[in-house]
Amino acid sequence: MGQSTGATPPVPITAKNKTMIQYDSNNKQLSIDNDSNTDRLTNLNQINKLTTALVPETNPNFQPQPNNETTNMVKNMFQSGMQQAQNKNIPDALRKVDLAVDMRNKARKPWEPFSFQLQELHMMLRNRTDLELVSQRNLDAWQDLEMLLNCGMVVPEVFIRLTDCLLKLNLVELARPYCERGLSLDPKNGPLLALFQACEKKMLEIEGDL
Amino acid sequence: MPQNYDYDEASTTWPFFVLTVLFVAVTPVTLIELYRLIVGDSSDKSSSSEWSQLHEKYTSEEVRKYRLANKKKRSKKGIYFITVGWVLISMLIYHIRSNDAIYQIAAAAFDPYELLGVTLSSTDKEIKSAYRKLSVKFHPDKLSKDLNEIERTAMEEQFVMINKAYKALTDEITKENYRKYGHPDGPQSTSHGIALPKFLVEGGTSPFVVFAYFILLAFVLPMVVSKWWSTSQEYTKHGIHSETASHFVDKMFNFKPSYVVVPDLIIKWISEAKEFQLKFPELSSVDIANIIHSHVNREKTENEYARNYVLTKSSLLFHQLIEIASTFRNTEVALMALDTYKTVVQATPLSPHSQIFQLPNVDKEHFLDSTTDDICALGKLFTYPDDKIGKMLGIKDETALNETLKVASRIPKLKLVKGSFKVRGSSLNTAEPGSTPHIQVKVLVRSPRHKLFPNSLIPAEKIAGDDPLLLEQDPFEKLLEQPLLPETFAPLLPTKRRTCWYALVVSQKDGKIIQTPSLAQRLSLENLDVNFDKRVIKDLDKEFNAEDWTIGTFSIPFAQPAPKEEGTYFFRVVIKSPDYFGSDLDFTVPLTVKNTPIETDPKKEILEELDSDDSGNEGEENTGYSSEDFDESDGDDLEEDSDFTDIDTDTEDEHEATEETTEKSSKTD
After folding, report:
1. Residues B177, B101: one domain?
2. CA distance A31 to chain B (A)
3. Which end of chain A has fewer CB atoms surrounding its CB within 10 Å, N or C?
4. Does residue B348 belong to any structural domain of this protein?
5. Which InterPro entries does the record match to this protein (chain A) (predicted)?
6. Which of A83, A119, A146, A193 to mutate to test the interface with B (most CBs of B within 10 A)?
């Protein structure tokens, strides 16, 4: 068998496979017939999105760089939000930060370096969660904090906020593991220890053992 | 090769051949059936217990019929096989006994002991004297003259045989010949033949024999082999269809963090299993999902006929999904699969009130309408008097209420006493780099009805449990000393099941599962019988009797060696029951990796360890965070440490929490 040569031959598309991927040479888009597999559709959509963004690029020495214009736009929107926050106008501040996050999603080209985008996202999400926590939008805050965790931001501060927000949502059974995970990162973290005690107390209360 | 074959004309060979084959097949099946009979009896014994009777009472007629039919179907097949097998064996034995030809052959065989009339245990002296006596009797010179020619020859032959027999038992070479070839003269001629009577092979029936061989070799054998091969290919060694397994793997491989993992998603994956497509080709995966949903919501469904099969199979599918999710290190899916498993076992949807709704006789709407207090846990329920509980749950009948409370009070709750890493043969609480530790979890099983007491009331010897002299003992072997867990109260499930716990180990560093879950099926639940009602006990210290309580142990294997570098590593251990809501345990265990100091006295170490356990505050010692570490001023540091820029809004909350707890602790002091 000639498998040792490395590259595996592409799987031939036969009538048995049924689903056929079609390529439109005019708009450079891929499409798929008779397929309801959501994973495959998602993957295809991602490829299409990337192609659409790449097609109008004219620079022959193309090197992905963060777009300065977008960066400034997002930054300005975000900072004006922060200014509102300093003026204690929390709802407006939140609206502006929301807009900044949305803007980042839409205006950034998909090939712009992700490490830069990630930093930007971390900063904005951290501030957004704080604003959400202040304005008692705990569910939104929970979602953003989970997002931060998934984006690799595993620091005690995130766990402090997660525990706090889940305790406010009365979800102590979910809060406690997060609190313990935070304490694993920093066993002497004061706020986390305090929250841990609060979790324990709340657990006893729920179980009718207090 | 001989040109002519000998046939088994006198039927002297084939009965033995068939008998051997029959014994090989029938004996193991008989033993298995006998074992089942005995074990089945013991399970019947337990069914006479109050708990099983209660379970039986709430089981619907339909489910009971299904269980019975399943049991019968399984046992009948074996019994038919055994009966036919033993009838054939007895017929063969009868045939052998009534066949003179076999006796003749047996008589012709050379047996020196029989010839000399001695036994196997006879001494050389006895053999010699027996030979002397016989040789005097049969010696050709000593024979009487009256004998005719035939008798004389027979006697002479007998004399030769006696001589041979004597030699076979005394002379070295002859003895060796007899031992090796069964005859004093050395190897005898052997004949090869066909163990079939001649008439079958050469008579008019021969075409049938050839045809039978043809069928056997051309059809039966290939069919059996291909069936065995295809099942071994189609099903994984865990018993699920390989397409189902690859479906689960595919789901995990393509898992995206954006997925919302809820019971519906898990049930959707389960319902897409190949097993269901094969059994019910007319039902789509949506239909199967609907069947599971209707069971969970305790509703009727259009496809009622498929329900029992779907639910029975789903148990195995859940187990496999949990294993596959663990292999992919996906904590979220593994935990949700376990929760969904619970909803199916208890036929109770996942909700904040699942613990209450899993009980029998509960009127859900009445409960949600009538209570102003938020009661989510069974423990909370038992803070109220019995009649009040009846009113809240909407149970008017007194027997029904008693039965509901009986079930509620027998749902085991686990209280963590101590969770730690242990290395076999070492009394230390630390592990050496590269050693193989396991996680030892000491738990107190208690009823939701019981009053909570601090771990400090439990005598230290009870917690330590193991004798320092027995440190070398295999921790997993030791688990076998604990009794098997009883039947789960799940009357709506078509199969009876034993209670068990899954133990998942998650690395706190990345929040991912590090090994496949281990299953605990043994734990003593005798604590549930202790009378320690939280509504009755007033003075905890006076009324507490440590003798009443037993401490259970979970030993969880740790699939990797301790890290090479010294330091403390944290692992989250989730002990989750697939049977009941409210029986779970979730805690963090630190693994301290440290090179062993040179001089240690194991006994002294143990004593120190016990002392420190006593002084610890309960709840904190479990996780390794002590209150001494907690300093109020730390709260202020947050502002500086935090990466959060411009504003840090929730420091107020932290301060509140801090103050609150310090207030609390000062109050309790």
Report:
1. no
2. 20
3. N
4. no
5. TPR-like_helical_dom_sf
6. A193
